[in-house]
Amino acid sequence: MEEALLLNQSLVTHFHRKDLSVNQKVLMSVFAIFLIFYVLTLIRNIIIVITIIYDCQLHTPMYFFLSNLSFIDICHSTVTVPKMPVDTWSEEKLISFDACVTQMFFLRFFACTEIFLLTVMAYDRYVAICKPLQYMTVMNWKVCVLLDVALWSGGTIHSVALTSLTIKLPYCGPDEIDNFFCDVQCKVNKLACTDTHNTEILIVSNSGLISMVCSVVLVVSYTVILVSLRQQISEGRRKALSTCTAHLTVVTLFLGHCIFICSHPSTSLPEDKVVSVFFTAVIPLLNPIIYTLMNEDMKNALNKLIGKKEGKGEK
């Protein structure tokens, strides 16, 4: 009965979001930067997916998962970044309750799926480097597809579970979100007109547990890989180190954001907005750059693809 009364108090139909700055010139600069970042993110990640599909030599488990990462980066960036430039021209910065919940759902979904994917990619590198003769047996296409289905399903379950906790809360004011999108840091939950302490603990514990378990798996995997690389010949070691360095850089950037969020679940810091921008706009742009700059196979495939297109153009 009490829950029904609380639900009837959910009078908030829209939320107001804050800008990065009140200075109009700064907002115009932000608009241009977000637009450029988003376009570059789309172009670079789409190029990676096309290159992997086009080049038969990249039809391996590693690049299958890398194409998944590029697709996630496109989607993750699309959930928030296109709305940011639009809001710079709007005075009210409104977002409907349903749109806010949808944004939170997909942010959690793609973030969780990505951390699962990075963990699977670490396992793939472990098998490839530490058990090279068994690689195609262990990481056959059936296993790859099953792992792919598992990580996307895991992201879905995580997002549905946490978003349902947010939907059940009553919202009757205030209606201002202390960020420029509906993020995963429980800031929307704080607007509920009821005690959200237990809900926030569940959300942070769930996300923190996933981050911790995946971090342990990643650390163990790369520790074993680095020990194994000491015994390999120089050329094979150099190529493996290049691939692992790219992966470790992406993992560090992503988990660094997760650790920052979990370190202060109940408070808002001025740095939160900067970290949010980095997570939603910069990381999806950096990932394809990191993988192409540090991966010889990707660079060769890109040069081959560009060379053939130029050759066709000349004809």
Q: Keywords, please?
A:
11 helices, mainly alpha, disordered N terminus, 315 residues, 74% helix, Rhopdopsin 7-helix transmembrane proteins
Quick rundown:
This protein is mainly alpha-helical. It has helices at 2-8, 24-54, 61-80, 83-88, 97-130, 135-138, 141-167, 197-229, 234-263, 271-293, 296-314, and strands at 14-17, 94-96, 176-177.
CATH architecture: Up-down Bundle
- Tell me the Rg in angstroms: 22 Å
Helical percentage: over 70%
CATH topology: Rhopdopsin 7-helix transmembrane proteins
Spatial strand arrangement across the major sheet: 2-1-3
Order of helix and strand elements from N to C terminus: HEHHHEHHHEHHHH
Account of the 3D structure:
The chain has 11 helices and 3 strands, in the order αβαααβαααβαααα. By secondary structure, the chain is an all-alpha fold. It has a single domain (about 15-305), classed as Up-down Bundle (Rhopdopsin 7-helix transmembrane proteins). Strands 2-1-3 form a 3-stranded mixed β-sheet. Helix 5 (about 95-130) packs parallel to helix 8 and helix 5 packs antiparallel against helix 9. The longest helix has about 35 residues, at about 95-130. The chain is globular and about 60 Å long. About 35% of the residues are buried.
